[in-house]
Amino acid sequence: MPSTRAVRAETTEYTKDRILRVAAELFMRQGYSGTSVREIGQRAGISQSALYHHIQSKAHLLKALHQQFIVEMIDRLETVVDTDRSAPEKLRDIVGVVMSIIESHQPEVTVFLREQHALPPAMRRSIVRQRDRVDQLVDRVIRDGMAAGELRSDVDVRLIRLGILGMCNWAYQWFRSGERFSSEEIAAAFGVIAIEGIVEPEPRGR
Q1: How far apart are CA 162 and CA 166, in angstroms?
Q2: pTM of the entire predicted model
Q3: In a domain, 35, yes or no
Q4: Which domain holds residue 22?
Q5: Does the structure show a pLDDT above 70 at 134?
Q6: Which single residue of 39, 41, 129, 142 could bond 51 by disulfide (Cβ 3.0 to 4.6 Å)?
Q7: What is the DSSP letter of 8?
Q8: In a domain, 188, yes or no
Q9: CATH number of the CATH domain containing 104
């Protein structure tokens, strides 16, 4: 049988997950400023004192929602970047990772992209470092592709990255799992739209 400590830790983790799930749903529907900590506790089925045992503040909840998806995203992007695939293939894989994260964590992604301005500066700085890591990984693939002659070098690296990630990130506004297009189909289409235009064309024969 599991120890009392193990059961308590599992219960604590389950309660925290429930709080985060409820917070994401309420923030997405009512907005961050329109949702109170008391309301989150009521919807999660726990007292306000118990709620503060798991979270320090509403801002900490917002930061925790960001952590729900950004850590997984960075891990998966690092795996893509470290493969031996070509730069165009890696960029398609990156698009696939981002769309997959949006599908699996849509409430968290939606809330964070809409409400990140509400975070205090100290919390925002730690998150900016994680977002910068995503940018660095994508930029590395683009630069390596340019150096290898796989991608056009006459387009700015930052603009390419902003175009690719911007197109993917905006999907949180309209993507609905189970509707006409799957996240895989959208990723494939975005790969064609975003990447075909920056692939270095093969030299034409005389």
Answers
A1: 5
A2: 0.83
A3: yes
A4: 1-55
A5: yes
A6: 41
A7: H
A8: yes
A9: 1.10.357.10
Beta carbons within 8 Å of 176's beta carbon, 6+ residues apart: none
Hunting for tokens 């503060």 — which residue is that? 52
CA angle 35, 39, 44 (to 5 degrees): 120
Same domain, 160 and 179: yes
Give domain status of residue 38, yes or no: yes
* DSSP secondary structure letter of residue 199: B
3-state secondary structure of 151: strand
Q: Fill in the amino acid letter for 31.
A: G
Write the pLDDT tens digit of every residue in 141-164: 999 999 999 999 999 999 999 999
Assign 3-state DSSP to the chain and report helix, strand, coil percentages, each to 5: 75, 0, 25
* CATH at 15: 1.10.10.60
In whole angstroms, give the CA distance from residue 195 to residue 138: 13
Q: For residue 3, is pLDDT > 60?
A: no
Structural domains in the chain (count): 2
115 and 162 both lie in a single domain: yes
How does pLDDT run across 32-53, given as a tens digit for each residue?
A: 999 988 898 899 888 877 787 7
How far is 122 from 118, CA to CA, in rounded Å? 12
Tell me: pLDDT of 73 over 70.
yes
Residue 129 lies in a domain: yes
Q: Rounded to whole angstroms, how far apart are CA atoms 139 and 162?
A: 10
Between CA 25 and CA 40 the distance in angstroms is: 10
- % of the chain at pLDDT higher than 70: 90
| Amino acid at site 126 | S
How long, in residues, is the chain? 206
